[in-house]
Design goal:
single chain; about 110 residues; alpha/beta; 4 helices; 3 strands; about 45% helix; about 15% strand
Length: about 110
């Protein structure tokens, strides 16, 4: 299911682009700029995914890549599954990087 971006959010995105310079998305497209987003599943990174999706739809920028770094401090299998489901809606590749927790307090 491809999400539909509400008109009110599209207007905010266009307002942001206007402040950044209207030609910027066209330069990104023409230069085949690659985007890599560290995705946490939070509100900030989720709205950035939506913004990149908007740019992909409207300006045909390159498909961004997303990654999530798991520090391995706690078990978050359910959260990872929810993130993966959300990102699949946009058709963006999502890479999970898992790091084993290290104990820095030991002598």
């Amino acid at each position: 299911m491809i999400p539909e971006i509400p008109n009110s959010i599209s207007k905010h995105f266009e307002s942001m682009l206007h402040r950044m310079g209207n030609q910027l998305p066209l330069l990104w497209r023409d230069n085949k700029t690659k985007f890599l987003l560290s995705y946490s599943g939070g509100k900030d990174s989720s709205i950035l995914v939506l913004f990149l999706f908007y740019l992909k739809q409207k300006y045909n920028i390159e498909t961004p890549s997303l990654f999530y770094l798991s520090h391995g401090i706690r078990e978050i299998t359910k959260e990872e599954s929810n993130m993966e489901t959300y990102i699949k809606n946009f058709g963006f590749p999502l890479h999970f990087v898992k790091k084993k927790s290290q104990n820095f307090l030991s002598n």
